[in-house]
Amino acid sequence: MKTHLWPAFINVIKRDVVPALGCTEPVSVALAAAIAMEQLPLHERNITHIDVRVSPNLMKNGIGVMVPGTGMAGLAIASAVGALAGNSQAKLEVLKDITPDNVKQAKALLDANKVTVNVADVTNILYAKVSIYNQAHCATVTIADSHTQVISIELDGVTVFEASPNEQKVVEISNSPFSDAGVQDIFDFATNAPITDIQFIEQAYELNNALSCEGLKGQYGLEIGATFQRNIDRGLLSGGLLTDVLLRTAAASDARMGGAMKPAMSNSGSGNQGIAATMPVVVVADFVNADNEHLIRALILSHLMAIYIKSYQNKLSALCGATTASMGAVSGITWLLGGNVEQISAAICSMIGDITGIICDGAKASCAMKVSSAAGSAVKSALMALDGIRVTGNEGIVADDVDTTIRNLSALANGAMTHTDIQILDIMINK
């Protein structure tokens, strides 16, 4: 076993699995606005204009998603409420302290046409530049390449902070622990690491399960989870493992995409990916009456596998991230049901043969449908693998080897699907 990689595995999980309140693209804009507002003198914070410029991918994920606590969707309200009441120290939970009065003031800025949002001409996949003006000053903050990475701060045209080239550089796969690791190494770590070293992942259960409960009791988004529950109550659906996975996973996404004021535990910069990597595993653990240690190991396996698969892809793309996160979940599910690393590998390959090509057409309420579809594929693929059945290396982009199959998936996401991304944004903007 490559135990020398284990500290790096723990570090990457702690970096990429963090609480986030709301969809992380609007939140990134809100964070930039909050930091920009802090640059203005305290007695001169009467906003006259907010100018927001974002990358095409960030625009795609910010157009239609609800901003927590506001009852509104979009980047304009995110920037306005972030400027007025954002807590920059809270990072991806920047909006956790907003009040109804803050929201009222933010909406007044929008009603007065004091907020503009445009697509920036940049090559960065993830990019947000927010400029806040008052009568005497202008403060500008730019975030790029990750949702919380500030690369520059300007006040009245003068740069007061600029990240060094090394700080701006996105971590490449060659510099990550995965350059010398694969599915086997992740499995070895998750199933053998000291439990005290990985117990922190239990917070993913706590946060995402709370979101799931909220989604079932409130009217959020498309109410996918609640729809399943209503139809179980009507007798049109039966209960059981598959239904419970779909119901509880979708409900968490419903709440998150519907603007619930509860954080999700994210994965790879996405709350939905965090939900997809968590809730199916939690439901299966409940179903088999797993003890706490098995739940923790299954969650670590799921989240690290999801990070591993996503690490070969662009941060944002035309490929739905919930699908790749669910490939992490299938690892935890298969292990909880008694599977070994070969069966986990088979299940991942089957999922890649099943749901590759589900597009990301922006963050929105219907993401909960894709989350539930991916969760369903995870259950199906795990059960197939346990019976010795998998999509073979002779079919489509699937190879005999799981790590090669993962790279094939990423080649598709980073290659041909970049053109798909352009077409998706064009359709969305011109509807």
Structure overview:
By secondary structure, this protein is α+β, with helices and mostly antiparallel strands. It is 54% helix and 10% strand. The chain has helices spanning 6-16, 24-39, 56-62, 75-85, 100-111, 165-168, 183-192, 195-198, 202-217, 224-234, 241-257, 271-287, 292-310, 321-336, 341-355, 367-386, 402-414, 417-429; strands at residues 19-20, 49-54, 66-67, 72-73, 115-119, 127-133, 138-144, 150-155, 158-162, 264-265. It has a six-stranded mixed sheet with strand order 5-2-6-7-8-9. A two-stranded antiparallel ribbon has the order 1-10. It has a two-stranded antiparallel ribbon with strand order 3-4. α9 packs across α12 (271-287). The longest helix has 20 residues, at 367-386. The chain is globular, with a radius of gyration of 21 Å.
Topology:
Layout (H helix, E strand, L loop, with lengths): L5 H11 L2 E2 L3 H16 L9 E6 L1 H7 L3 E2 L4 E2 L1 H11 L14 H12 L3 E5 L7 E7 L4 E7 L5 E6 L2 E5 L2 H4 L14 H10 L2 H4 L3 H16 L6 H11 L6 H17 L6 E2 L5 H17 L4 H19 L10 H16 L4 H15 L11 H20 L15 H13 L2 H13 L2
Parallel strand pairs: 2-5
Antiparallel strand pairs: 1-10, 2-6, 3-4, 6-7, 7-8, 8-9
